[in-house]
Amino acid sequence: MNYQVLINRENEYEKQDFQNAKYATYTNSLGEDIILEKRTLQAFINLQSEFITDIKLDINSGYRTIEDQEKIYNEDKIYAAKPGFSEHHSGLCFDLFLIDNGVVVDDNETLKSDKYKEFFKKVEKKASKYGLILRYPLGREVITTYPYEPWHYRYVTISTAKIIYDKKITLEEYHRLFRRSGILLLNKKKGMTSRDVVNIVSKRFDTKKVGHNGTLDPLATGLLVVTINNATKINEFLTAYEKEYEAKVLIGTRTDTGDVTGKVLEKEEVTLSKEQIVKMINEFPKEYLQEVPIYSAVKINGKKLYQYARNGEAVELPKRQVEIKSLELLATTPTTFSFRTTVSKGCYIRSMIEDMGKILGVPLTMSALKRTKQGDFSLKDAYNLAEVNENVKLISITDALQVKTEELDKNLAKKIKSGNKIRIDENMVLFLEDGKELALYLKMGEYAKPLKMFSTK
After folding, report:
1. Residues ≥6 apart with Cβ < 8 Å to 334
2. Cβ distance 116 to 98 under 8 Å?
3. Which run of H or of E encompasses 226?
4. Using one digit for the tens of pLDDT, what is the confidence trace for 190-243?
5. β partners of residue 437
6. Active site residue: 58, 206, 217, 355, which one?
7. Is 17 annotated as catalytic?
């Protein structure tokens, strides 16, 4: 469930967003039954336990039906949202009242008075520990479009609440900064796994929807194309691109992993002249069946190849057709050489280097690898991981796909959201709603059908 879903004057409550929500009933000190989403209720109970002396907390409003909200809106248009546009429909928010030395304080103007100003600051700080945010803070009225309401709290999960509280931003600002979708180009450093990078980016953007295109081993450095939120749905289009690498080779050694991190299987005291290496570069096939290395994540019978290797199990290694689009020698020494190459999807540089060794008749292994390009993406445009925060520039899905786009009106947007078949002139069209990617449609015969659907929440 999306606990960060934005509901405000511009973003309507949609029932399908809460199909998996579980609700519970809480009876307050006045004997009133309040319905809340379960995690929201637990967060309130935890917050309530922090204030058990002179001033106590309680709630007098939680989940509301459309009909409930309509009655409240007709009575109070200053604080209440229009029916259908209230967070209360979700059950993720509640309104507090105070019990001050046994006296119930539930009048809005009294709650906003200087008398309780410092007290509510303490409430806000404590609330963030339990995943709750002050939804309409003082001084942010232009952004939230609602007046200051020190009593109105919303559950957003602990990690999100910490970000919002620490950065002193609203949920609207959080969405603009942290709920962006796009492609992030990163310069991976040696020693990190690609999964390490994904985990760090996931934490920085407060989302689990982070992926990458093309694994780089810990030994390797260079360009890692990372996808965030909706962009994870277009990974298959980005991985199809060709890639450019710069590799360094150690002469006279062969290992079980194909690089210097592995167990040495063969070692010779041998040197190669520049002429021998140039001859091999010129003779290397432009296209061939390449054997996939045993230490790889390719699956055979549901199990990854590296699992067979670690267990000492025999397995027939698959072969893939690969294309070597360019191959250029960069430097040589008697015991090493380096080269730059552009290869097709699925080509392993470790295997390519071992195949070079077969041509030369000497064992070779990879000692360094740097990815410099992937399709139109270049390492020169990549960020270092230390530079990445919520303000970093992302490449949009629109720019990455480079297909025709079409902005939709509300009527056609509803059809597209329902996955209806439509007619389009192009083979593929990316539909937008208010500038946000909504769906990627592919022409199949007379009609086009949705290939990818994107969340606009």
Report:
1. 251, 271, 272
2. yes
3. strand 221-228
4. 999 999 999 999 999 999 999 998 889 999 999 999 999 999 999 988 877 799
5. 432
6. 217
7. no
